[in-house]
Amino acid sequence: MAYDFNLNEVFEMAIQIEANGANFYRKAAGFQNDPADKEFLEKLARMEDKHKTTFEAMRQQVSDAEKEQTVFDPANELSMYLKAMADSHGGEGDPDIADSFTGKETIEEIITTAIGLEKESILFYLGLKDLVPPKYGHEKLDHIIKEEKLHIAQLNGFLKKAKA
Question: pLDDT tens across 45-57, in order?
Fold first, then answer.
């Protein structure tokens, strides 16, 4: 049995994923001895905070129809399920990857890992598009995917500067 998501639920996951991304960079920054590297990773964390704010603003624009519940949730467990999906999707800000940091990773390794995780997030959202019917805001997932593509472009730019 397939589960249909609505746009509001997707934004709830996207907001959690961005929070995880910020935590990812803050954790990596905590291991840095070089003040410039630490500041750079903290800057990336703040960038993720801004992405979270962007998704929160986009969520405010969701119509009532795009918030309509698609499943019976008498115990109000849906938010916990959505958080678990966001935490375990294997993409941006993956808590398991962040927890695996040892402090020996270079800035280039951290950014390369982050780019890979962003790509996984795009695949996650593309998969979700199949689970969001048109009446629940299917086409608006393209806005989230576009934001994630911009994240990759930004990170690629940072990676080029770090390697220079």
Answer: 999 999 999 989 9
Q: pTM for the whole thing? A: 0.84
In the CATH scheme, what is the code of domain 7-163?
Answer: 1.20.1260
Backbone angles phi, psi at 42, to 5 degrees: -65, -35
Taken in order 54, 55, 58, 59, the sign of the CA dihedral is negative
Q: How many other CB atoms sit within 10 Å of the CB of residue 85?
A: 17
Radius of gyration of the chain (CA): 17
pLDDT in tens, 69-90: 766 655 666 667 667 767 677 6
Give the count of beta carbons closer than 10 Å to the beta carbon of residue 30. Answer: 12
**Domain positions in the chain:** 7-163
Please say whether the beta carbons of 137 and 67 come within 8 A. no
Q: What would the two tokens of residue 10 be?
A: 């997707």
